[in-house]
Amino acid sequence: MEAIRSAALYICSVLFILTEVRSEYIYIPSLVHHGIEGKPLLLSVEVHFPLDEVDLQGTWSHTKPSGTRTTLVTFTKENTITDMMFRNRLIFRQPNVSLLIRKLNQDDEGDYHLSLNIEFHNKTGLVMKEERTVHVTVDVPVTTPVIAKTPSHAVVEDKANVTLTCSVERGTRVTFQWLRNNVLLGPGGRYHFSPDNSTLVIVPVRKEDMGTYRCVATNPVSQGRSSRAMDLNVYYGPYNLAVNSGQGLRTGEVFTINPGELVYFECQADSNPPNSYVWISKSRNATQVITEGPRLEVHSYKLAQTEEYLCRAFNNATQKQDEAQFTLVVADFRAGIDRRTMDSTSFSPVAAITVCSLFIIGCMLLVFLRRSCHPKRVLMSIYNRPLSEQKRPHRSGHEDATEDFGIYEFISIPGKMESAQASSRSLARLESIQDMHTTIYDVIGQVPETPSHSLLE
Ligand SMILES: *[C@@H]1O[C@H](CO)[C@@H](O)[C@H](O)[C@H]1NC(C)=O
Ligand SMILES: *[C@@H]1O[C@H](CO)[C@@H](O)[C@H](O)[C@H]1NC(C)=O
Ligand SMILES: *[C@@H]1O[C@H](CO)[C@@H](O)[C@H](O)[C@H]1NC(C)=O
Ligand SMILES: *[C@@H]1O[C@H](CO)[C@@H](O)[C@H](O)[C@H]1NC(C)=O
Ligand SMILES: *[C@@H]1O[C@H](CO)[C@@H](O)[C@H](O)[C@H]1NC(C)=O
Ligand SMILES: *[C@@H]1O[C@H](CO)[C@@H](O)[C@H](O)[C@H]1NC(C)=O
């Protein structure tokens, strides 16, 4: 505590003395100078007293950064003695005591110290002492920086590191900054800077690193100078593979079309360079490339009742691929009367609402009646909707929950790669399963587009 108090006291008294002195007889406008090599520099001093009423005596001395101290000029009002070594390089002029350095070079850096004794004629015997120190740096202006990149060609995401270097032909005390799309980059993550920031290494390079890079070189005597732009191209993908139908609906796993209908599908994935696409049909147990390119057209009359399609996107540069698979079902109304009545394509809104209401009422009744019974299972089905219909929510379920007791089988449609976003579940009575087609048809006929959850307690 004692130490802190005495330190504070000391600082206060020093400040007091400084302000005392500062308000006195000389004033130096700038105590720090950033000089340019080869240019003159004036260490200017303002004198705040009438020169003809005083006697003056003083020195200018120079302390290099290394600590070497040299007296440059010693002066009185009548005489000036300049160190011979500096005779051609310095100009000291009375009446004010400013010092001019004619042509700066690197050796001129350091602290310039002015010590001045003043004796007023009306107060002989009393000598005032003034001391000031001016700090001088000498720099070479920076030239336009040059940006370079290795490797110079486009790189593959996650498989390469990119090094960007920035250099200047001339310039001292240069600091570098990096911009991507005019946003300043800082260290961290995959971005590594050399100690002087002249090199940026991206380890490893990613899709989001694509863009236009610039470096900016700055020093005390130059405003930031920007390099030309350098584009970084990164090969990536395919990402986010999706199959869209002509109507703009995203396909799920199963897709129904009406007999005679013509539909087309578009396969899309984000990738650089653009993907190549192939469409593959997996019908009749055989895999066969049908078409190349993102677009597939299907005439339903050419189909068997069910056909599996697969779109494969391949990026030549990254050697990566992705696949999306779905099943196309031709809804055949001649197959069975009872199925047709339930076919979602013939659903009217009224029918949908009626079914929904009945289902909800059934559920509520069941909850009331079966409070004491233990729940046996939860049934749910999720399907995407046929494209031929407008978007309209449907619900369906078991109108009589007492029939829910029985043996159930879980059937999943085979295939679907990792990119599949929805999984398909089929649920049907064991005794009604004849083949896969029938099962799929059943579920499509009864379960509409929006996921409907039925929770039986
Ligand atoms: C000091 O004298 C020099 C040379 O005569 C002049 O250029 C400069 O402006 C003066 N500086 C001040 C602060 O009066
Ligand atoms: C001496 O002269 C200076 C400048 O003219 C003036 O500021 C100062 O007050 C004078 N001092 C006395 C004691 O007369
Ligand atoms: C990228 O840099 C990392 C870390 O220095 C290194 O382990 C890796 O091998 C480099 N990759 C390439 C492709 O040079
Ligand atoms: C390098 O850049 C970072 C921020 O981009 C900065 O904090 C750091 O001081 C710089 N280093 C040098 C030596 O300029
Ligand atoms: C269908 O393919 C499976 C396996 O790929 C094979 O076991 C089966 O014999 C094939 N069926 C026909 C009819 O070719
Ligand atoms: C894929 O790359 C090979 C060579 O690397 C090239 O010959 C071919 O044209 C490329 N294909 C596409 C679709 O870019």
Automatic annotation (TrEMBL):
The answer to keyword DNA damage applying to this record is no
What are the UniProt keywords, alphabetically? Cell cycle, Cytoplasm, Disulfide bond, Glycoprotein, Immunoglobulin domain, Membrane, Signal, Transmembrane, Transmembrane helix
User: Subcellular location, in the record's words?
Assistant: Cytoplasm; Endomembrane system
One Pfam family in the UniProt entry: Ig_3
The answer, when asked if Membrane is one of the entry's keywords, is yes
Q: Check the record and name the SMART domains matching this protein.
A: IG (SM00409), IGc2 (SM00408)
Q: Where are the transmembrane segments?
A: 347-369
What membrane topology does this protein have? Single-pass type I membrane protein
Q: Which residues form the Ig-like domain?
A: 145-233, 238-327
Q: Which Gene3D superfamilies match?
A: Immunoglobulins
State the signal peptide span: 1-23
Mind telling me which GO cellular component terms the entry cites?
cytoplasm; endomembrane system
Q: Which domain of life is it from?
A: Eukaryota
User: What PANTHER family does this protein's entry cite?
Assistant: HEPACAM FAMILY MEMBER 2 (PTHR44888:SF1), HEPACAM FAMILY MEMBER 2-RELATED (PTHR44888)
Q: What is this protein called?
A: Ig-like domain-containing protein
